[in-house]
Batch of 2 targets.
Target 1
Amino acid sequence: VAYGTEVVEPTATRTGYSLVGWGTTSDATIAVETETMPDNDVEYFAIWKINKHFAVWYANNGTNDTIKVDTLDFGAVIIAPSENPTRDNYAFMGWSATTDGTIISDFGTMPDQDTAFYAVWNINKHVANWYANDGTNDKVNVDTLDFGTVIMVPSENPTRENYKFIGWSATADGDTTSVFGTMPDKDTAFYAVWEN
């Protein structure tokens, strides 16, 4: 560059960093103004600032409520929240990089952009036990059902010598019921009702 000529700053890029300006030493932290070329050689060194981005952790329970937001440097190790989220009637399984993706255990390092992770849930399963209720309480049927699933009676009625089966009850000595509802968030039982 000729003496007295305006010094034009070049464009420089570095993944994960933003250019702050140019300094006259390799460890400079404050940029200098480049003006015109002096009557000697001169060196300029790029001054970089590491980029920061958001790692957002979502509950992913239909509302995508934010659980936690981390502001991390580019390249920083991403660490999951120390406390797992909770959701009624569901078990927390882990985290995914997509709302309906597979569970990951290694979250890697912070990319040069915001990133998000989503809780993965499994609906709770419980057992509906159907008892013969004939003095031995032998099980007639066992159904493993998701929470909230409609409970259906066994396709075949139980039999008992010298008794007529008249329906099912929610208690061993209760009246028959025709409404079984949906699976609660616990095991449940129904008992055959007999008439002799």
Note: The mean pLDDT is 91.
Target 2
Amino acid sequence: LIEENFLNRQLANAQVLAGKGQAERWTRILGPQAYRDLVQRIDLEFAQTGKTWYHPDEPVQVSLHVKNIDQLVVRIYELNTLNNYRDRLDPISASISLEGLVPNVEKRVDRKQPPGLRTTETIELPELQGRGVFLVDIIGGGTNVRTLIRKGRLLCTSQVFAAGHAIQVLDEDCTPLTKSSVWVNGQRFEANEQGF
């Protein structure tokens, strides 16, 4: 069984964040301090429905849940994937250090909402063109969130022959890329005219 007071508090939280109902009612359920803390709390987080992989031709947008923030600063960094993979041998993550990096794009998004109201903001990112891996860093209200956006995808197939390995690089549509190369043990191998 679920305690009725717990359910009432959850309902009150949801209604306050949605800006619905009577403040006096929610204050009685939550208590004055908890109600005040909830209304004054700053929220900045990505919506769970957000994508992190896009086709190279697809427009990019990010959705955020935002509360008590009047301006968002959006910084976009195009990351050098070759150097990262070659030097670290690890996939790029959103926690990568940005020390010494200058964003490729920086823009501000002004927003005016009543205090305490949590809204979903969708930010279009037309600057993300073509293939690449981009880190999107969004700052507001003394906090920040980050996500990696991947545009395009590379896949590979590998076959073992008596003479060695044959590796073929494919794009996100499984089209062989004849002008590609792979790095193996610190050595670069260029594809031949068949893409191997």
Note: The helical segments are 4-18, 23-30, 32-40, 81-88.
